[in-house]
Write a structure and sequence with these properties.
Helix 10 crosses helix 11. The longest helix is centred in the middle third of the chain and has 20 residues. By secondary structure, the protein is of the alpha/beta class. The strands form 3 sheets. The protein has an 8-stranded parallel β-barrel with strand order 1-2-3-5-8-9-10-13, surrounded by 7 helices. 42% of the residues lie in helices and 18% in strands.
């Protein structure tokens, strides 16, 4: 079963209330499905330089609430909440409340964290990857249990919730869509088993990686982890991808040459990389159709800088 195309914007640049409200309104007006934020907190400084992540002025939960309040159909989400940055019981209650107050427009993105410089700057222990993913598994279980409204009885290594029922009940049942993403087998298998939206991280940009795989082969490999984890439910999953380099242009060769210089990789073949979308509207639309067949990706997230330029692609493909 091929899922229809949906498109989202990940916005991190708004610095004022007026700018954020205008961004949400434009994203909805141009036909995008979802407005995402990120779960990052560092302002300018050495830690931000180490993390190599641009400053995000707005904390996601409040900003998602405002975006939902000034729109009527736009879905809202965080791509993705970090399990270590939030008390699990409080986070799932916030999420359920967002779904209730938005009349069922929340997408619950959740992940195990990755930015060690940000952890260090905020005084949060950066546990080994397996422990962070184990915590992620427990938070996902709590979110699903909370959404039932039944008394909670969970006591794991990281999450405890017992002797109370989760309130409020989210509008979307059995729970708002869960988005889980990553690049490795364990987390992508978890996404296959437990998520509604599985997100595949960017694959390497060199023509052949250390394991001898091309970027296309690595993307297919990662999709296989999701498929194996999902089993019979694979056809119901959405596969999300965020192209790292996106440009709508009538001169793709020049744009690709610039990207190749920046990455220090050959320009030849770069246009076929799973995380590069460069070309005219027609070319990009055709490439997305091809990639949905090959890599499964039907849910495409672009960065805030591409809202206007990418809108014709959204108009062409959304819902198809």
């Amino acid at each position: 079963m091929t899922q229809p195309f949906r498109f989202a914007v990940q916005a991190t640049r708004a610095a004022t209330a007026a700018e954020w409200r205008a961004t949400a309104g434009k994203v909805e007006e141009l036909g995008y499905s979802t407005l995402f934020l990120a779960d990052h907190y560092l302002g300018k400084g050495q830690a931000a330089k180490e993390a190599m992540w641009p400053p995000q002025h707005l904390a996601p939960i409040v900003a998602m609430s405002v975006a939902a309040a000034v729109t009527s159909t736009l879905r809202v989400g965080c791509r993705v909440f970090n399990v270590d940055y939030h008390v699990p019981g409080a986070l799932v209650k916030e999420a359920a409340t967002l779904d209730l107050l938005s009349d069922g427009r929340l997408e619950f993105g959740i992940g195990g964290g990755w930015s060690e410089p940000e952890y260090r700057a905020m005084g949060i222990p950066f546990e080994p990857g397996p422990r962070r993913i184990s915590k992620l598994e427990e938070v996902v279980a709590l979110f699903k249990a909370h959404s039932t409204g039944q008394p909670l009885d969970l006591k794991g290594d990281f999450v405890t919730a017992r002797d109370y029922a989760g309130l409020p009940l989210p509008v979307q049942q059995p729970h708002p869509p869960i988005l889980i993403g990553g690049s490795r087998k364990r987390v992508l298998s978890l996404a296959g088993r437990e998520a509604d939206i599985a997100s595949i991280n960017n694959v390497p940009f060199e023509p052949v990686d250390a394991a001898g795989r091309t970027p296309q082969q690595e993307a297919v490999r990662r999709l296989g982890f999701i498929r194996d984890g999902a089993g019979d439910r694979f056809g119901d999953l959405e596969i999300e991808s965020s192209p790292f380099f996106t440009a709508i242009t009538g001169d793709p060769a020049t744009t690709l040459a610039g990207i190749a210089t920046m990455l220090r990789v050959p320009a030849e073949g770069l246009g076929d990389h799973p995380n590069v979308l460069v070309g005219t509207v027609d070319e990009v639309a055709d490439r997305l159709r091809e990639r949905r067949e090959t890599f499964g990706a039907n849910y495409i997230t672009v960065q805030q800088s591409e809202i206007d330029a990418f809108a014709p692609v959204v108009a062409r493909l959304a819902g198809q």
